Structures are given as C-alpha cells and as structure tokens.
Amino acid sequence: MELCRKYEEIILKQISVDKNIVTLVDIGCGYGTFLLLASELISGNAIGIDIDEKMVEAFKNKIQDNNISNAHVIHGDISKGETARGSSMEVRPKPETIIEWASKAGFTLKSQIDIPPYHFDLVFTNK
C-alpha cells in the first residue's frame, strides 16, 4: 500500500498538485485513488466525477471512512456517448476532446502527462 501511495505522490507532483490549487476536478476518478491524496495536498475542494455508480459509492465510503471534508464525488457522464468503466479505449474521451471541452468552458491547458497504458492527466487553469 505504501508503494502505491508513493507512486500517486510522484504523479501528483508531476502535475503540480499543491496548495496553490483551490479546486481540483478528477474526471473518471474511479474509487478515488488519486483524488484522496490530492485532497490532502490542495487548499480547497477536490471533486471527482465518474460514470460508474459502484465506483462513486466506493469513493463516498472512503471519504466518509477517512473523515475528509474537502473531497466530493459526483455520479455523471461528461461525454455524449457511452463510456462505462471497462469500455474500449476507442469510446473513451481522448485528451484532445477533453481539452476542447475545457477550452469552450473557459479553461486553459496548463500541463498534460500520459500515464500508460490507460490514464492521462490534464491540468487546466481558469482563463
């Protein structure tokens, strides 16, 4: 477990998750692997969004069990298509698509890293 936390810390450091962040949103947060740790590192709220109700419920339980007041989770689908957990990579939103959505919503891409084989991190700031 300690090795997993170290890995998460390295990833969050790479994308500059720190006290300078007031609101952090994790799209496809699952059961909160990165978001729980991120909630400890930022100065404001950490918000997770996931399409899988079981993941959302598991994350809610972690939030409650760990008495975390600044982590929140929302059940929802940010895309127009089906992107259920375990879906093929072809139907999941690509980084370019999310960057476009974020830009239209008034955000600017700050950094992007790939975490092969299935994950990526995009960091946005308000324009």
Automatic annotation (TrEMBL):
Query: Which one Pfam family would you cite for this protein?
Result: Methyltransf_31
The keyword Methyltransferase is assigned to this record: yes
Query: Gene3D superfamilies from the entry?
Result: Vaccinia Virus protein VP39 (3.40.50.150)
Q: Does the keyword Transferase apply?
A: yes
Alphabetically ordered keywords of this record: Methyltransferase, Transferase
Which residues are in the Methyltransferase domain? 22-81
Read off the SUPFAM superfamilies from this record: S-adenosyl-L-methionine-dependent methyltransferases
Q: Name one GO molecular function term.
A: methyltransferase activity
Q: Which GO terms describe its biological process?
A: methylation
Q: What is this protein called?
A: Methyltransferase domain-containing protein
Q: Which organism is it from?
A: Clostridium bovifaecis
